[in-house]
Amino acid sequence: MPDGDVLLSNTDGTILAQGPAVLVCECRGDGLDLAVHRVATFALVASLVVAGIVTARAAPFPILFIAGTWTAGATAALLAVRRRRRLHGLFRLDFERHELIQDGRGFRRTLPIQAIVGVSTPPASDTDVDEPGLAPRWLLLHLSTGEQLRLGRAPAYALGPALAFLRRAGVEP
Questions:
Q1: Which residue in 34, 15, 33, 32 sits closest to 24, CA to CA?
Q2: Which domain does 62 fall in, by range?
């Protein structure tokens, strides 16, 4: 990751200010991606094995319905993970050049900075923290296309410097 003033650094990502007009955010997502890929690979291989056993007439034909269910579930999980992948990545918000660059896993896209319509910090619903001030929140960037990009995750107080940078750059909550 490039050098700059660290606004946030934790296990969920890093946010750096590179001068007064460039914000670099790295939010790669969670380990869900790897877990889904492993389970889906197992399910798809098991489905192929079951189909081979049925083809060899060593098992009754209705067993293929189980293999079909595994295949459908694995495919749906892989598609869901692929959609979530569009939320995360390495983001470079350059307010001087008026561009937002997203480097995700397997893709890269450049959007005009005018596509940003706002920023919010909703609670991260996938964690259980009893302390209200310490509960993690997402730093979400809202685009005019209706998409949301996850720039980072931390307690509200830790997201303050990044929010202040975005407000100075003209991004409203």
A1: 15
A2: 33-83
